[in-house]
Every structure is written in C-alpha cells, then in structure tokens.
Design a protein that fits this description.
This protein is of the alpha/beta class. The protein is built from twelve helices and nine strands.
Length: 328
C-alpha cells in the first residue's frame, strides 16, 4: 500500500497544480504576513514552502504546529489552515482562534470538520481528493496549494509553480536510479540509529526523512542542521559509535561556507562512526532538489520497513493516542 502511494508522488504533484489552478480564491486588500497552521504530514508542507519562498516573498511566512496562534495574528494576516483529514484536533483549535482573530482564512483539506466549518462560515477553501489513506503521503497536495495561494495573491513569482512541474518530470526520469540508491541506503542503515544532517535552507528535507523513518520504518532517529549544529552537537561526537549511521542530504549549490563546514564535519565525525553517507540531489532548482531528496528518502523508509519486517502503513499507536484523547 505505502509503496503505491510513494510511487504516485510525481503524479500527485501534477494533480495538485491542476487543483490549484481551478481553485476559486479572492485576495484580501492587505496582507502583512502569512501564518500557516498544520501538523504531521500537513504541517511539513508549510515548512517546505517557508524554505522555498524566503528568497522571493517580501512578507513573513510563519509555520505553527500548535493548538494556539500568536497574538500578532489579526485582520491583515493571511492564515492557511492545513489538515488533510480535516479532523486534526490541534488544527481545529487553531482554526477557531483564527476566525476570532479576524484573519483572512483559507482552509486546505480533503473534507472532515474543517471543510464543514469553511462552508458554514463562508471561509475560502481548497478541497483535496479524499482517497489517500495516509496523510504523510499527501505532501504534494499540501505544499503545492500553499504555493498556489501565494502566487495567486502576487506574493511569489509564477516560476516556482513551474519548478513543481519540472520536479515531477525529474522524479519520473530518475525513478530507477532513486530506487537503487534507496535500497543501498536502507541496507546500510539497517540495525543502526540514523543521524540526519543537511544545511539550514534544506532542513525540511531532514525533518521529512526523520518523520518517514519514524512512521514507515518504525525507528527512532534525530536530525540537525549546518551551521547551527557546529555550535553545539558537534561537541557530542566524542566516542566511537558504530551503532549510528550518519546521512547528509547535500546539494552542489549549497552556500559555499556551509559546504566547507560539511567537509570539515565529515572529517571529524568519520573518526567516530563508519557509517557516513552523503546523498547529493539531482535537479537544477531548490524545489527540484528538495523533491528529489524527499522521494529518495520516502523510498529509503519503505525499503527499511521491508528489511525490518514491519508494515509501513500501520500507525496503531497514533490511533490509540487519538482514541485516548477523545475519551479525556
């Protein structure tokens, strides 16, 4: 099941663009900042967009993963509430507060209570297909709609949406190579705890991979970013740790000083673990490179699940948590 969902990711990117093109959206007269609320598979979409638009969007783009909203959210805030299921408890709470704040709210969801609330209260919304059983497999739907909203409202250039199309083509073109790389990486990290590094502008890639290892492969891991980890975590590399596998998601156009830092980090960390894996993205733009890394990481998590003999789709502990929360 999960392998079928991962395989459909390039098609999802194309479909998401069509959905966005057909969405009926009205721009508010004034937008001072953009506030996005969402969690898990829906929240990570906001993280990617924040990274993609920081060089072109002239107003703040803030992502929150909480029940609550900041005090500065108000009538001149464009607020995007994203939940694939439409029933995420924390996002529903934030949505209620957003309506009270007077913010201009747009809902992104496949249905559930959030679409009902949008219809009842006259909120703008973009409705997604409801036939995807795992929200974490719906990253394309989530982040593309946010880009569509920003482009429609004149906050980012249209070329970012064009990069989504080229990213989908790249993933199809590189499919066989991605599978082979993913299999090799999964074999290398089997039985080890993964330590995931990347540069600050690409942190959503590391976060996404961490989440996919958690949910699909049912393992714990951690991530950090360059240059921040050079001011703290690097000191923790002091003892030999053959139980750790370090993976670094890299791009050949990373900021020059960060590339130098990565090389020095490699020299240091390699003294303490034999598992140091560098994964370079293919693609010419940030969106192409990010989607390449995402697709590669998703397949690594799926292959690792198979090697561990676990069901990549199953998330019983999250279902248990939601049931217990509903009873309290």
């Amino acid at each position: 099941m999960m392998d079928e969902l991962i395989a459909r990711f390039p098609d999802q990117l194309d479909e998401a663009l069509v959905i966005g093109k057909n969405a009926r959206l009205t721009r508010p007269a004034r937008i001072d900042q953009v506030f996005v609320t969402g969690l898990g598979g829906s929240g990570i979409g906001g993280d990617f967009v924040a990274s993609f638009v920081r060089a072109t969007c002239s107003i703040p783009y803030i992502v929150s993963k909480s029940y609550q909203i900041p005090a500065w959210v108000g009538p001149h805030t464009l607020a995007i509430a994203s939940s694939y299921s439409g029933n995420t408890e924390e996002t529903l709470s934030a949505l209620d507060m957003l309506q009270q704040s007077g913010a201009h709210v747009i809902v992104i969801s496949s249905g559930g209570r959030m679409i009902d609330i949008a219809k009842t209260n006259g909120l703008q919304y973009i409705q997604l297909p409801d036939n995807w059983p795992s929200p974490r497999a719906c990253l394309g739907y989530s982040f593309v709609q946010q880009l569509v909203i920003l482009e429609r409202f004149g906050l980012i250039p249209a070329e970012l949406l064009e990069q989504v199309t080229s990213a989908a083509s790249l993933l199809r073109q590189e499919s066989a190579d991605i599978h082979e790389r993913a299999k090799r990486v999964a074999e290398l990290i089997l039985g080890k705890t993964s330590v995931i590094y990347t540069t600050d502008r690409m942190e959503p890639i590391a976060l996404r991979f961490r989440q996919q290892l958690n949910e699909n492969a049912k393992v714990l891991c951690w991530h950090h970013v360059i240059p921040e980890m050079n001011h703290n975590e690097l000191v923790g590399w002091r003892d030999r740790r053959d139980d750790l596998a370090v993976m670094v998601f890299r791009n050949r156009d990373d900021f020059e000083r960060n590339q130098i830092r990565l090389e020095i980090n490699k020299e240091i960390i390699s003294h303490y673990t034999g598992g140091f894996i560098e994964l370079y993205a293919k693609g010419q733009t940030q969106i192409e490179q990010a989607m390449y890394h995402v697709h590669l990481g998703d397949w690594v998590s799926w292959y690792l699940a198979g090697l561990r003999g676990v069901d990549a789709t199953e998330v019983r502990v999250i279902d248990f948590l939601k049931t217990e929360l509903g009873n309290r």
